């Protein structure tokens, strides 16, 4: 969508779409190439992000 605004949007939308495109590219770079090694360095795994199910012990005691 942003690239179509950049190429076909005309003179008015060109600078706005260019700024959005640059922001999206830097956001992708930051998320993939910067944050991923930091998360690995901290030792966080997928198992750490999964919620632990709590067993309700009172559910079986009710008549």
TrEMBL record:
Xref: Pfam families: SecD_SecF_C (PF02355)
Q: What InterPro entries does the database record attribute to this sequence? A: SecD_SecF_C (IPR048634)
The UniProt keywords, alphabetically, are: Membrane, Transmembrane, Transmembrane helix
Question: Which segments cross the bilayer?
Answer: 16-44
Q: Which residues form the Protein export membrane protein SecD/SecF C-terminal domain?
A: 1-43
Tell me what this protein is called. Protein-export membrane protein SecF
Upper lineage: unclassified sequences, metagenomes, ecological metagenomes
Gene symbol? Answer: secF_8
């Amino acid at each position: 969508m942003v690239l179509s605004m950049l190429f076909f949007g005309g003179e008015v939308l060109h600078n706005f779409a260019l700024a959005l495109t640059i922001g999206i590219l830097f956001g992708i770079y930051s998320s993939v190439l910067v944050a991923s090694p930091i998360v690995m360095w901290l030792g966080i795994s997928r198992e750490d992000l999964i919620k632990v199910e709590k067993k309700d012990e009172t559910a079986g005691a009710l008549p």
